[in-house]
Amino acid sequence: MDYKNFIIRSITSFVLFFLYAFFLYTNHNLILFLIVIFYIFVLFEIAINFTKIFIPFVYVTLSLIAFIMYFALYFDILFFNFLLLIIISFDVFSYFCGSIFGKNKIFEKISPNKTYEGLILGFILSNICSLIYILYFLEISILNILFINLIICFSFFGDLIESYFKRLSNVKNSSSIIPGHGGFFDRIDSFIFSIYILLLFSIFQ
Predict the structure, then answer these.
(1) How many CB atoms sit inside 10 A of residue 58's CB?
(2) What is the CB-side half-sphere exposure of residue 81 using CA atoms within 13 A?
(3) Could you say which DSSP state residue 28 is in?
(4) Which stretches of 50-76 are DSSP H helices?
(5) What is the C-alpha R_g of the chain?
(6) Enclosing H/E stretch for 27
(7) Using alpha carbons only, what angle is made at residue 37 by residues 54 and 33, rounded to the nearest 5 degrees?
(8) Residues 42, 178 contacting (CB under 8 angstroms)
């Protein structure tokens, strides 16, 4: 495991969390501003650093539209934080467990660092964190448990999709603007794909 990168990644994650928490408790509308800015940076990274631009650009733009629709029509801070908790806990646990225990690669040609061990342990530990959250802030229901596991799946495939786009353009990271993470696309790749599930759940609840 690269402990130096892990420390840098952890510090950067704390700074991003602090920024989100500041916006959250100052004004909820600032969250819209913050995340739209993230999306704009992702589109900028694609335009500057990718050679295959069209499909990634459309992919991210459609996700941005879905997020704006969700925020304008259905935004609920507890459920939105629930989404972020699932994504972040799965990302952290799968990365950490995969770095320590990972031996068996999943999609080595697309994302060489993904392992079955990281995926399985990330899945289990993210479920535990998410169940604790709904126990205190929401309610335990079949729909909420289904939501947890759909978000984990979409987070995983969102990461793979971004990795595939990078391979097509022969780049390792979308940029190097965020220490320990790479670029904004590297940081919110799971969110970009998962937002559709949040929007659909909000529509039909």
Answers:
(1) 10
(2) 16
(3) T
(4) 54-73
(5) 16
(6) none
(7) 135
(8) no
CA 132 → CA 11, 113, 119, 190, distances in Å? Answer: 25, 29, 20, 21
Q: Residues 58-78: pLDDT tens digits?
A: 999 999 999 999 999 999 999
pLDDT tens digits for 76-89? Answer: 999 999 999 999 88
In three-state secondary structure terms, 183 is coil
Residue 115 dihedral angles phi and psi, to the nearest 5° = -130, 155
Instruction: For residue range 164-195, list pLDDT tens digits in order.
Output: 998 888 888 787 777 666 788 888 889 999 99
Q: Is 81 exposed, middle or buried (0-12, 13-18, 19+ CB in 10 A)?
A: middle
- Kindly list the domain boundaries of the chain, sorted by start residue: 3-204
Q: Output the CA torsion 25→30→34→35 (10° steps).
A: 100
Query: How many whole angstroms from its chain centre is CA 119?
Result: 14
DSSP 139: -
